[in-house]
Amino acid sequence: MTRALVTGVGAITPIGLTAHEFWANLVAGVSGAGPITRFDTSDMPVKIAAEVHDFEPGHYMDAKGARRMSRFAQFAVAAARLAADDAKLELSDSERPRAASSIATGAGGVIDTMDEMEVLASRGPARVSPFYVPTMAPNMGACQVSMHLGLRGPALASVAACASGLYSYVEAKQLIELGIADVVVAGGTEAALHRLPIAALANMKALSRRNDEPQRASRPFDKDRDGFVFGEGAVVMVIESEARAKARGARVYAELLGGGLSCDAFHITAPLEDGSGAAQAMTEAMRIGGLTPADIDYVAAHGTGTPLNDAAETVAIKGAFGDHARRIAISSPKSMVGHLLGAAGAAGALAAVMACATDTVPPTINLETPDPDCDLDYTPLKARQMTVRAAAANGFGFGGQNGCVVFRKYTG
Fold first, then answer.
1. For 180-217, what is each residue's pLDDT tens digit?
2. 120 and 220, same domain (yes or no)
3. Do 72 and 220 belong together in one domain?
4. Are residues 241 and 264 in the same domain?
5. Where among 247, 272, 302 does a domain terminate?
6. What's the mean pLDDT when you consider all of the chain?
7. Is 405 in contact with 258 (CB distance < 8 Å)?
8. How far apart are CA 4 and CA 246, in angstroms?
9. How crowded is the C-beta side of 357, counted as CA atoms within 13 Å?
10. How many domains would you assign to the chain?
11. Confidence band, pLDDT 50/70/90 cuts, at residue 1
């Protein structure tokens, strides 16, 4: 079996414009939630989100190219460049055909669709951008990353709702293990912050309405949770074969063991109450990774802060890990970065990687009154120093799509 190693990390998030800033703030319990500044919310019941602030596309790409990219693709390129720089990744012409991208998303360029619809309605068809179609297409995150980094192997773009980001790491491991690629730049990206999605999710009762205290609004596993906080951002990691990483003396954060995927086949939005679909993904991830439940020390939970999801995930973790479930440290990055949708699983994966690399478990902030139905160790309020031999990251999406990836501390 060919081993796959994480050699570079990059992130554009509400709590940091690098992976290391993201991690420092995650451990410190810093919230990225606040009032929405991108559009008028005066007539909306939800007025808060976790926005990415101070992002300048020109720091990562030329201005002309940035104008022909949707924000989700800009995030992807920026995070990928940061990850490649962190990995000190250099590719010769002969290596480029064996270098791939796998950049997942949930909504792709949905903002561009809504903006161009307004142009069409108000100014007519002649004023619609000729670049609309190649801008909004969900595969453009992966394709733009490949173009900017010169990756000539496969460019994959899974769309699996809020599990999307985890699919990219399953694909990265498979590409390396099958001998198709030696390097995969993998992650998730999302930029869907717009009046329409916010209105729809608010009407679904999925979003928190704690408009007066946004930093306390995302409270996974807390008895008083009332929904998730909408977020945006991207997380990308460089995954290399062990042989290539060793040959160039690369720094290694963790080993990617693989992941498990499943579908509830139950409902378009609600999870199975018994958590069996999610548990299946976790169990499969451990099987593929050659791990037992007792090997896992930390789980980066999906943990959205919705009543149904958090209770179902608690049941699912118990189903997958048995008695060991009560000995695992668990936390939800969404308590700080909000729900990044297609990038959420990638953010959880980065938390799992950094937990293995630093022996630190980030907290679940705002977990002040634990829900009796969520009775596992969700690392409330403060980070914890502990040995993390192996870690898992969960992601569950609308349509019942479930994913779990597992990482292990790399010892050579």
1. 999 999 999 999 999 999 999 999 999 999 999 999 99
2. yes
3. yes
4. no
5. 247
6. 97
7. yes
8. 11
9. 19
10. 2
11. confident
Instruction: Clarify whether 302 is annotated catalytic.
Output: yes
Instruction: Quick: pLDDT tens for 252-287.
Output: 999 999 999 999 999 998 888 899 999 999 999 999
- Contacts of 234 by beta carbon, 8 Å cutoff, 6+ apart: 11, 12, 13, 72, 75, 76, 78, 79, 141, 187, 188, 189, 190, 343, 346
In CATH, what number is assigned to the domain containing residue 82?
3.40.47.10
Q: 157 and 267: one domain?
A: no
Residue from 302, 356, 374, 404 carrying the catalytic annotation: 302
Residues 306-345 have pLDDT tens digits of 999 999 999 999 999 999 999 999 999 999 999 999 999 9
pTM reported for the whole predicted model: 0.97
Same domain flag for 106 and 55: yes
47 in any annotated domain = yes
- Whether residues 32 and 101 share a domain: the answer is yes
Q: Are residues 217 and 81 in the same domain?
A: yes
Supply 62's token pair: 């030329």
Average pLDDT for 115-130: 96
Query: In terms of Cα–Cα distance, which of 174, 188, 161, 154 is closest to 258?
Result: 174
Q: Per the residue annotation, which of 143, 148, 162, 194 is the catalytic one?
A: 162
Of the pLDDT bands very low, low, confident and very high (cuts 50, 70, 90), residue 109 is: very high
Phi, psi of 331 (to 5 degrees): -155, 165
For position 194, what pLDDT does the model report?
A: 94
- Model pLDDT, residue 201: 96
Given 247, 277, 302, the domain boundary residue is 247
pLDDT above 90: residue 126? yes
Q: Are residues 401 and 287 in the same domain?
A: yes
Give Cα 64 to chain centroid, integer Å. Answer: 28
In a domain, 194, yes or no: yes
The parent domain of residue 51 ranges over 4-247
In a domain, 252, yes or no: no
* 162 noted as active-site residue: yes
Which among 339, 356, 374, 404 is annotated as catalytic? 339
Answer yes or no: is 24 within a domain: yes
